[in-house]
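Hi again,

Forgot to attach this to my earlier email, sorry! This is the prediction with nicotinamide-adenine-dinucleotide bound. I've pasted everything inline since the attachment limit keeps bouncing my files.
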Amino acid sequence: MRAAFIGLGYVGLTTAICMASRGMEVSGYDVDGGRMESLRRGELPILEPGLDSLFEGARSRGTISFPGSAEEAVRGADAVFITVGTPSRGDGSIDLSHVVSAARSIGRAMRSDSRYRVIVVKSTVVPGTTMGPVRSALEGESGMSCCRDFGLAMNPEFLREGSAVEDTLSPDRIVIGESDPRAGDLLLDLYGELHGSAMPPVLRTTPENAELIKYANNAFLAIKVSFANMFARLCSRIPGADVDVVMRGIGMDRRIGPSFLNAGMAWGGSCFPKDLRAIAAFARGMGVRLDLVEAALEMNSRGPSEVADVLEGELGGLRGRVIAVLGASFKPGTDDARESPAIWLAGELGRRGAIVRVCDPAARAQGIEVIRDPGRCLEGADAAVLATEWDQFRDLAPGDFLRMRGRVVVDTRRVYDPGRFGAAGVRLIQLGRGAPREQPIVRRSPGLRGHGAVPIGAVIAEYCR
Ligand SMILES: NC(=O)c1ccc[n+]([C@@H]2O[C@H](COP(=O)([O-])OP(=O)(O)OC[C@H]3O[C@@H](n4cnc5c(N)ncnc54)[C@H](O)[C@@H]3O)[C@@H](O)[C@H]2O)c1
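Structure tokens for the complex follow:
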């Protein structure tokens, strides 16, 4: 089986290299010439754990190539994956221009190599895109007919940056939205070659369902995180409360599960924000309001300014204050800082007059100077915010923060030990943790003889006064 990838970002490159590392013949093309050059030299343009060794292996076996045009990449391929970006337009709706342009170049290539093949849309696209604009572009450029001369499939990707290799080689499931059974069969054969006896469960369906599954999946996960973030705000106000314990408690319910309940300032990254905006805008266009999605987007957009409010209150104003923001990537383990809450926070602090320093061990953030050394970032600062919980920041001791001019640390991920920080004279504010409670929350009531307890609400009201 030969596979081609048009678009070599986190999804395209990871999937291409994983397939090539399993002995499949893979070719890849990206419009970014610099990216192509570095790949030909054997250098990866993205940070993804485990990908470099697989890449080296594939290069030494000669199973991966990076030809000079999309047409060359497509020639000879049985399956061609469209893995280009689908960014937001100004109004939040999806920009499909890269997908359509990739489909056109594939269609042109099919003119000179008319074998039956399946074109696979792996990019996240709104319902109707695969059998609409993508099909039209392919048929228009190639002069061939879908479901007869070539097949079309929508095959959403669920990998997570930071564990993309593991997710690609052992996915929870494979969703195949097929134009017709022959197209689905061919794609299934290709995945059979990749996964062998460890084939994950497969859901075969219509392209429209496959497109919707991806959006519903991301919307559900983002809303789940927002749920934890919502309770974190409440926990912050309740002495003795800890959102991590509350979420662990609900995560033990098998109907809920423990994942995606780690509360923080906001969710971000290259997918959740743009995908939720895209499906909300798409639904509005159909006369449907996705209330939960809209609410999650609205609440999420407030996260960074709420953290800025905390700092402003603590410091009595932000103008001229030096704030160290620890973290720039949207989560640890990736260099991707697209739509990162840490960057949103840095922007908000800057708008309020603060002098912001951003520290991150790996992130590439356009237009922002990223300091690699936490010590240099903290030196002389008035306050620090732990925004992205890289190990390098988890490992900081209270003493590391004593090189700051001020003594305020806002920990949005609850990685620091309040006891140790308090003992060192550092004021630690943790998102989702109330102030330490001095007395037990449920006490014997003198009015209720025997086993009566004061109603918890009344006690909390008393402590919150
Ligand atoms: N990054 C993730 O974690 C993730 C996870 C699941 C799904 N997705 C989806 O997969 C798609 C790709 O995401 P990504 O993060 O890999 O994007 P990316 O921005 O990292 O990479 C996209 C690449 O496509 C290239 N490109 C654009 N137009 C092209 C064209 N016409 N021909 C050839 N190359 C072209 C760009 O130069 C870029 O290198 C998106 O729709 C995204 O929503 C991403």
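Residues 6-12, 29-32, 35, 70, 83-86, 98, 101-102, 123-124, 157, 159, 161, 270-271 surround nicotinamide-adenine-dinucleotide (CB under 6 Å). Residues 234-430 form a domain with the Rossmann fold fold (CATH 3.40.50.720).

That should be everything now.

G.
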